[in-house]
Amino acid sequence: MSKNLKQKKLSPQNDTPHAGQDRIAFFFGALLVYLIGITARVTAFHSLWRGVQCTLIVDTTALLLVLVNRHLLHAVQKHLRNGYALAGYILTSAALSAGVIILFTRFLGTILPLLASPWTRLPNAQFVYFTYLFSAWAVAGRWLDERARYNNERIDALAAHNAMVQSEMQRLRLQLSPHFLFNTLNMLAVEIPEHSRRALLVLRELNHYLRYTLDNAERSLLPATQEIAGLRSFVRLQQMRYGESLRLTIKVEGSPQGHCMPTFLLQPIVENAIKHSMISANGTIDVHIHIVTKPGIVSVQVSNCGDLETPSELPGTGTGLRNIGRRLALHYPERHNFLLEQQGELVVAQLMLRGEPC
Description:
By secondary structure, the chain is an alpha+beta fold.
C-alpha cells in the first residue's frame, strides 16, 4: 500500500472525523436536554431564574454521568457476549444513574431550599424520565460507535481496493512497452539484411517514440492531445516500416482539449489492426482511424480489411487487446464500450469512453 494511502487510513483509535461527529451529537443532545429541563422546571417552580438554576445544576450532573456511563460501556462491551446482555447492562446502568440523580436532587433541595424541586414529590416520574434519558444516550452512543466502525471498514476496504487497482494499472503499463518493443525489434531484424537504410530510419524514429514512451512511463493518464500525438508518432513508425504498402489515415473531429485518456491506450488497437489486416484489392494494407471528441465523450473507430472468421497468418498472443479490456475496466468502470466486429469486408474496432477516467 502506498504511503499516501497509509496516511489517509483511519482507525478506531484515532478516528478524528468520528470524534468530531461524536462531539457534535453530544452538543445537540445536551442542548435538547437543557431545553426540556428548563421548560419543565420553570413550569414547576413558576420562576424562570430558579428553573434555569436547577436545570444547570441537575442536568449538568446528569450529562457528566452520561459521559461516565459511556466510558464504562466501552470498557465492558467487549465482555458482553450478545445483544441481550448489552441491553441488560444499559438498562441497569440507566436505572442506577437515575437513582443517583434523584438522590442528588433531594440533597440539593436540602442544602438549597429555594431549589427544592416539586418533582421530589413524584419519584416514580423522575425515575422513569431519567432512566429513559440515560438509556437513550447509551443507545445513541452505541449507534454512533457502530456507524464509525462500519465507515472505518469501508474506508479500509476502499483503500485496499485502490491500492490493488493502482498496482494493476502499473503492471499493465509496464507490460505494454516490452510488448511493443518486441514487435518492433522483430521488424528491424527482418528489415536490416535487405533494407538497411530503411531500417536505420525506422531505428531513429523508434528512438523518438521510445523517448515519448519513457517521458510518460510513470503517468497513468495523459491529455488526449498528447495521446493522439503519441499515436501519430507510432503511425509514422509503422509507415516507415511498411512504406507504400501501408495506407494509414487519422481523422480527428472535435477538440481533444479538456479530455484525458489512459496512457498508450490507442496504440495497441492500431497495432492490432495493422498486424492482422488483409491486403486490399489495390494491394495495400488500409487502416483508417477516426477519433471524435464531444463534451464528456471520446469515440475511436479503427477499421481495416479483414475477416474475423479467418485465422490470421500472424497469430498473436492477444496481449494488446486483453490489456485494453482490463485497463478500460479499471479506468472507466461501467462507462466504456469496446467492440471488435465484422462490417462487410472490414474489421472495425469501436471504442467509446464516457466521463473522466479514474
